[in-house]
Amino acid sequence: MNRLASIPFVALLWREVLENRTLFIWAPVMLALVLFVFAAWLISMAPNDQVSISIQYLSEIFDGLSPLEIAPILMILAVPFMVILYVCALIYLLGALYQDRKDLSVLFWQSMPISNATTVLSKVVTVAAVAPFFSVTVLLVFYTLALLCLTLLGVAYEVQVAGLGYLFLAALTSLILVYLSAFTATLWLMPTVGWLLLFSAFARRAPFLWAAGVFILIGFLEDFLFGSQYLANWVESRANPNQYLIYNLSDVTERMFSYDMLFGVLVGSILLLGAIFMRRFID
Amino acid sequence: MNTIVEANRLEKHYGGFKALSGVSMSIPQGEITGLIGPNGAGKTTTLKAMIGLCDVEGELSVAGRDPRIARHQLMHDVCFIADVGILPKWLRVNQLLDYVDAVHPRFDRNRATKFLGSTEIPPRKRIRELSKGMVTQLHLAIVMAIDVKLLILDEPTLGLDIVYRKEFYDRLLNDYYVGNRTIVISTHQVEEIEALLTHLLFINRGKIVLDAHMSELETLFTEVIVKPDQLTQADGLGPIHKRELLGKKAYIYEAVPRAQLEHLGEVGTPSVADLFVAKMKEGSSVNPLSDSMKSSNDE
Hints:
- Chain A is mainly α.
- In chain A, 79% of the residues lie in helices and 0% in strands.
- In chain A, helix 2 (21-45) runs antiparallel to helix 5 (79-96) and helix 10 (190-202) runs parallel beside helix 14.
- Chain B is α/β, with parallel strands linked by helices.
- In chain B, 33% of the residues lie in helices and 28% in strands.
- Chain B is built from 12 helices and 13 strands.
- Chain B has helices at residues 43-50, 71-74, 93-103, 109-117, 132-144, 162-176, 190-193, 217-220, 231-236, 258-261, 272-282, 288-298, and strands at residues 3-14, 17-28, 32-36, 57-62, 78-81, 150-154, 182-187, 199-204, 207-213, 221-226, 241-245, 248-254, 265-268.
- In chain B, the strands form 3 sheets. In chain B, strands 5-6-7-3-8-9 form a 6-stranded mixed beta sheet, with helices on both faces.
- In chain B, helix 5 (132-144) runs parallel beside helix 6 (162-176).
- Chain B is globular.
- The interface between A and B is medium-sized, with 31 and 34 residues.
């Protein structure tokens, strides 16, 4: 076994990947395959001259452009992958502290010298850093293959393809932004992460119904008892993706250290403490 | 004698159900202790409490620690096997070894690999593809390669066929039980582990009803195959249990001196299984111990 894998926390993260490879690896791979086949079908349906003109056009508009300027625009290509990542993260978090209790393997995991805090932390790091890593890796392979195919087609049609190199560099740069965005998104959405893990650790069955139900109930009670909608408004105020998406490397500090961000992380941490406490006794 | 587990008046309620009602016991170091009781007696609750997986009231110390406070630290010194089939099904055998190797500082991977080499478990197979018996073998191989003070086994051979069961206990005794290691086994199948045990704990309805070293049994309990003409007198001495034995009657006495019993018939020490049945039935009637003391005083 190599050195890295023998670090206990790395082993915990690897465990999460192995258990959830369908969510973290196969889901984005399937999406990439579908998009790739769809694109190939579109190209095969189009008349030859239209394809060659399109490739030449792509090559010409990107030729000489700075990857840093184009990258934010190219992030839009990753949107389907980010949507899949969010859905998978939701499913993962709801099952993270529930699935092992359901199949009783929790008795094995709890017989290892790993604290509940470390376990819960490993789930958060998995969502924040590990799952996006796989999404971005799949995107990287997808972009590389797609541009390679376009380049070969361009060469076959004898059109100018040098500009596609700039497009590729811009696509790579956009992946860095996508990864950073996914990371800051998890931090920004920490109250959600904490809430889901709390009910994942608490529910005896149907953690999703618990998590959604209790939230709706609290919102309803607030409205009914006090006639106010603070909770709903607060959630709505945090729903704009522009609050956490990173379009430029210089955005990072601004996003990470805003008061809203820190407050969200604080609320999330309190909920995570709740999840750790719930995890203490499994009966 | 050093003790590794000290429990004092442990209580546990599940709603209105009292799973533990004042469990007090001490488990000696370096012994193989059997925690024996019928289904629902509180065995699993007691064992789970010992490894911090269940919140109980009362005083509890395991390997010098309170399991309710620091489970993960305790797990450096304690290993646990629950009822069969709880290893994560989606892992491969070698991935499981990788994991334990990384997180458990006392795990000796070579030792585990050596144990597995003597079984038919393929290292690349997923655990879900293994038979029940193989999963238990695998778990035992892992646990035997971890150098801990205390090994806790909760019904470890439940649902296994006799070949695996026998092999399990043979291995445990020959490969694991060395030096100052302590083993606690819970079961409701007494016969199987009777020969293995050096210390006995009987539990019934959330209470410890017997806490004795195997060597003490001889002085505490006597079984008499009563001669037909002595039956009235035998009844008078307050047996805690009576049973038919090939047309004869076998009585078990607790705390009655053997000298008083020898003239009743053939005298011996009861088997753990018979003693278990006797002690489990005891709770439902009046306390036979005081009865037998009274009647022996009468003589």
